[in-house]
Design a protein that fits this description.
Helix content is 65%, strand content 8%. It is mainly α. Strands 1-3-2 form a three-stranded antiparallel β-sheet. Helix 5 packs antiparallel against helix 7 and helix 7 runs antiparallel to helix 8.
C-alpha cells in the first residue's frame, strides 16, 4: 500500500523515464548499432590510439642482434609447422620433430619479423599477412599472431632456462605489447581522445547523471511505500 502518494508518483515518473531512456539506448540508432555498442567501439578505438608501442620495440630490438640456439615445444604438430613457417620466412634455421622445433639464428631477426607482422595487423592489413605466408582467403589471419604469441612464449621460456634473462624479458615485452596488442585490436580503427573529447565528456557526465537518476527513482518509490533507510 502506498503511504506517500506524491513521493511514490515522483519515483514512478523517474523510473518510467529511466526505462524509456534505457529502451532507446538499446535501439540500433547509430549505423545499425545501439548506443552501448557504439560507446564500446569508441573506447576501444581510443585505447588503441594510445597503445601503439611497436616503433619503440623495433628500435630496442636492435640491442638483441645475437645468435641463439634453443629448443621449443608447441602444443601440436600443426602449430609447430605454422611456427616453423614464420621462423624460416624470417631467415631462421629450423628443424622440426613432431611438435618440437630446434631453432638456430639471430634473435633480432625473430623479433623484427614478429614486430613487422604485428605492425601489419595493427594497421588492419590482414590481406598482406596472407600474401606474405601464402595463405588462401579461408585462412584466419589472426592465427599468424596467435602462432607468433606461442612461439615467443616458448622462446621466452627457453631463454630463461638458459639464464638469458634480459633477452627473455624483452621477448615477453614484444609478445604482450606488440603481438597480443595487435591481435586484440585487429579491425578496430584507432582514434585519439583529443579528437573525441566532446563525446567522451558527454558519456561520462551522462553515466553519472543516469546512475543518480536511477538511485533517486528507487529511493522515492520506497519512500512512497513507507520504507526509509535508518542507522
Amino acid at each position: 500500500m502506498v503511504a506517500h502518494k506524491s513521493i511514490f508518483i515522483k519515483g514512478a515518473i523517474l523510473m518510467a523515464g529511466f526505462l524509456i531512456v534505457l529502451f532507446l539506448m538499446f535501439m540500433p540508432m547509430f549505423d545499425g548499432h545501439h548506443s552501448i555498442n557504439m560507446m564500446d567501439n569508441l573506447y576501444n578505438s581510443i585505447s588503441k590510439g594510445s597503445a601503439y608501442y611497436i616503433p619503440g620495440l623495433v628500435k630496442d630490438s636492435e640491442k638483441y642482434n645475437k645468435e641463439i640456439t634453443l629448443d621449443i615445444k608447441l602444443k601440436s604438430k600443426e602449430m609447430a609447422e605454422e611456427a616453423a613457417l614464420l621462423l624460416t620466412t624470417a631467415g631462421i634455421n629450423v628443424e622440426q620433430n613432431e611438435d618440437s622445433l630446434s631453432i638456430t639464428g639471430n634473435l633480432d631477426k625473430i623479433l623484427q619479423a614478429s614486430l613487422a607482422d604485428s605492425e601489419m595487423m595493427f594497421a588492419n592489413d590482414g590481406k598482406k599477412i596472407k600474401e606474405k605466408y601464402g595463405y588462401d582467403e579461408a585462412y584466419d589471419e589472426k592465427r599468424v599472431l596467435f602462432n607468433w604469441w606461442n612461439t615467443l612464449k616458448n622462446t621466452n621460456k627457453a631463454l630463461t632456462k638458459q639464464e638469458h634473462f634480459d633477452e627473455a624479458k624483452f621477448v615477453g615485452n614484444v609478445m604482450t605489447r606488440a603481438v597480443e596488442c595487435s591481435y586484440n585490436y585487429y579491425k578496430v580503427q584507432a582514434e585519439h581522445i583529443k579528437d573525441k573529447v566532446g563525446i567522451v565528456i558527454f558519456s561520462l557526465v551522462f553515466y553519472v547523471i543516469y546512475t543518480v537518476w536511477f538511485g533517486f527513482a528507487i529511493m522515492y518509490l520506497f519512500e512512497g511505500w513507507g520504507m526509509k533507510l535508518s542507522h
